[in-house]
Design brief:
59% helix, 10 helices, alpha/beta, 2 domains, Rossmann fold
């Protein structure tokens, strides 16, 4: 009995400190939930009906297909060269067109004409250039519109493939670029990119992985019993607390890629916090059993 009371006094402050840490984790989970709700509400508060979101796999395929566009262009002598990227023929919701503009913006060699103004000016540009309102497919029309827009380079082309289904996305397009005053194209190339979607760690929670994490969480404290026994002989509250945190950290590190990967979702934060609580309590229970056995109770 004295051994149990002695151990209880030794474990009181470490356990209280551990529970206080878990309380902070709970607050972080609540804050993340509030932030997620706020961001969702802000996105939904836009005027008018917003179009449905583009599937992540399709967006990733578009960005991957457009990534090589700046490298295919000759490097300009002066950066931020004004460039008009006209809507590509057959481009649904301008996904590829916007992807090309984003790629140019990140590179910095060519500066796309403000995409917010392009849509507003398109009708006026077509009227001033004297061409019908349709996708631009010839250099003469493109150069005429670019001159009106004050751009030095114009880009146009055609989407050949834009598909999404069964967790896979495929994108390919042809692109041509001309500079004002020259009939020779700066770029005339195809950009095929038929890539299956690569699921990042943490996209799905497979039950087999969950069982594996559970096995680690249960077995790891049992494997550290010899270390716990040596720590308890030191009769140090700090050492006891550090041991509990260290034993809890190993399952947490193993579970992190499964729960999160490259994305953070509110419900996964809560589930991860619950797992930490259970692992910490289980580690403390195992340590109490080791202490009782060492005291001969």
């Amino acid at each position: 009995m004295k051994g149990l009371l002695k151990f209880a006094g030794r474990m009181f402050f470490p356990v209280m400190f551990f529970l206080s840490l878990l309380r902070h984790v709970r607050f972080l989970a609540i804050a993340a939930l509030a932030l997620g709700v706020g961001v969702w509400g802000w996105r939904q508060s836009g005027s008018g009906e917003s179009p449905p979101p583009v599937p992540a796999t399709l967006q990733e395929a578009v960005d991957a297909a457009c990534r090589d566009v700046p490298r295919a262009l000759p490097r300009p002598q002066r950066a931020l060269r004004p460039t008009l990227v006209l809507p590509l023929e057959g481009d649904r919701e301008l996904l590829v067109t916007q992807g090309v503009r984003r790629a140019l913006e990140r590179d910095g060699g060519y500066r796309p004409v403000d995409k917010g103004k392009v849509r507003e000016l398109m009708d006026e540009l077509f009227d001033m250039a004297g061409v019908p309102r349709q996708d631009v497919t010839d250099a003469a029309t493109a150069l005429s519109i670019a001159k009106t827009a004050g751009a030095e380079v114009v880009m146009f082309g055609r989407v050949q493939r834009l598909e999404q289904g069964d967790g896979q996305a495929a994108v390919s397009f042809s692109l041509r670029a001309f500079e004002l005053g020259s009939e020779q194209p700066l770029l005339a190339d195809d950009f095929p990119a038929a890539r299956p979607a690569e699921s990042s760690p943490g996209q799905t929670l497979h039950w087999a992985w969950m069982l594996g994490v559970l096995a680690v969480a249960v077995l790891w404290p049992l494997l550290t019993i010899p270390v716990m026994a040596r720590v308890l002989k030191m009769e140090s509250n700090a050492a006891t607390l550090l041991t509990i945190l260290a034993v809890t950290a190993v399952p947490a590190v193993v579970a992190w890629p499964l729960f999160f990967g490259t994305t953070v979702v509110v419900w996964r934060v809560a589930l991860f916090a619950l797992m930490l609580l259970l692992v910490g309590l289980w580690s403390a229970l195992v340590m109490s059993w080791v202490a009782a056995r060492e005291d001969g109770v």
